[in-house]
Write a structure and sequence with these properties.
The structure holds two protein chains of two kinds. Chain A has helices spanning 12-18, 21-33, 54-60; strands at 3-7, 39-44, 47-53. Chain A starts with a strand and ends in a 5-residue tail after the last helix. Chain A contains three helices and three strands, in the order E-H-H-E-E-H. The radius of gyration of chain A is 15 Å and the shape is globular. Chain B is an alpha+beta fold. In chain B, strands 1, 2, 3, 4, 5 and 6 form a six-stranded antiparallel beta sheet that branches. In chain B, strand 2 (174-188) and strand 3 (193-205) form a beta hairpin. Classes of the chains: A alpha+beta, B alpha+beta. The interface between A and B is large, with 42 and 48 residues. Strand 3 of chain A pairs antiparallel with strand 6 of chain B, so a sheet runs across the interface.
Amino acid sequence: MKVDVFTAPLSEEGKALLRDESAARELLYKLLADGSHGRFEVKAGERTFDVTSSAALAAAAPRSR
Amino acid sequence: MNFALPAITLLLLLLPGILAVQGFLGKIGRKTSDPVGQTGVTWALLAAILVAPIIHLALSGVLVALRIGLPPDLHAIFVFLSGEFADKADFSRTIDSVIANPWHIALYFPLAAILGLLIGRLAQYLVRSAQLDRRIGPLHFASDWHYLLSGEIRTDVPAPDAVVVAATVEHGGEAYLYVGYLRDYAVDRDGELKRLHLNSVVRRPMAADRPPGQKQQIPDQTGRFYPITGDELVIICKDVRTLNVRYLYIKPK
């Protein structure tokens, strides 16, 4: 059966971080260890990235009632 | 010899509407083939029937106004559509009308079809840009997987910079948890998720769950999770039991 292939969202910052395999895995382990869906700091080569998960972002966003 | 002229004429007339609907639906709306009641007509075809006359009216109106087209011969069109060719004089007049303007007719229908496709694509672009499909139910496209895996399930958060997927997969009689960064995903024509393409994947057996009170160590020194080597892991979704999706927002510091 034919399928449609979609590309998942991946920004330039995301590409830069995930290009570093060890940084990508470190971030995964941080996500897995995170009980409160927080924010993380990850070093990829010379660059440092602030990573926010969706749950933390949603908690910070104002909600309409 | 029977050329099935009414069917060919109907197809030519509806083609701009069909292409407009297909252009609007695109890859993320292909599943929209639900029937309208018991009629056997799909919603997509019904929309095409409604849209096609509008495209013809607009295009022929513009062509006539620019003096590069002729007013449509509605009499000839209805003769072809009716399939009633018993009146030889009427049929001869209709055929003559076609023969007198071969280039106009040969160019008009492809032009109308291309216009239909462009209008459909433009309409999809406008709906997606204004996020109308996420706010108005009837404009929601059929592929729910697209909305979930693209981070478009909520309107109050921006598009993610990366997506992490955790999937429980059964093989060899045991369930495993795979976690990795989503690169691509494939959806079949029925709207079902077929494959997940993941990068930088780690996995653990489901049985090796974390004991209460024990914290995940970074890097994972407990050995519960271990990395899958390789550039890309493809998970066939018929083996997937559950999916957990987390969107990441990444900013350079």
